[in-house]
Amino acid sequence: MSDDTRLVDLSTGLESVPVLTERSSGARTAPTFQYSPENIQGPGCTVDPSEVTLPGCSCLSHSCLTESCSCLQTHGRAYDTTGTLLNLSRTESGYSSPVFECNALCTCSDACTNRVVQTGPRVRLEVYSTENRGWGVRTLEPIPHGMFVCEYAGELISFEEARRRQLAQRSEDNNYIIAVREHAGRGSVTETFVDPAVVGNVGRFLNHSCQPNLYMQPVRVHSVVPRLALFAGRDIDAQEELTFDYSGGYSNHPPAELPSTQRDAAVKASRTEGLQRKECLCGASNCAQFLPLDLSILN
Predict the structure, then answer these.
(1) How many CB atoms are located within 10 Å of the residue 155 CB?
(2) Does the pLDDT of residue 275 top 90, yes or no?
(3) Are 116 and 149 in contact (CB under 8 A)?
């Protein structure tokens, strides 16, 4: 590190663990945005995510017990005593079960093992300038499989606003909008749109990978509106770049090289309804060649 280089906390103290980034005379200038560790209500969103709308438990113990906690009895236990996700089948099946944490109305302590995402990142993360993919995030310490890493937080917006913003983007603009759809049976689908472009947290700097080491899990804390939490999909070494699949998928196992027919199809898909697809530079052996694009927002 040169004499004029210093590490600063990108979150300006808003996270329990500082989010580090380098500042120096020769370094790239970080984009201007408002840091927020949690989602905020954006245009078109009719629900305030800070409003407590879920019932709480009346536990008086240090940490909730399944046999006596109404939260755990209703929704099941999601974490072990270290805060690691118990159900790691998501990384194999591609599907996840709902996760509910204790909330502001619960009488259990802040140290309850059913409070994980709401306490924020617990590992030291660094936002840095990558070689060919703009900004990225790496971990400064090892992360075990199933551990919570960070949230993908930003403005909660409506479908109409997400569509308006995506259509207004220029080819050189980054698309930060993530759409999460949860299927609850009998055709019931809950949609959540998060855009951290202007207001967001460290999650806005995470790059896409076709073979990621993080996966996204919707977690409900105080509100029925889910928080988009990112967990380690495998054991991650210190200094590794952290990535997730922007399309919501996850795979630990790199498949064989794309057949030529699929590569040809991918090239044709680079232009979809007049929209120029962005090239994927993740370098994975199963790379789809282009970044995911959610056409349902545009149609």
Answers:
(1) 26
(2) no
(3) no
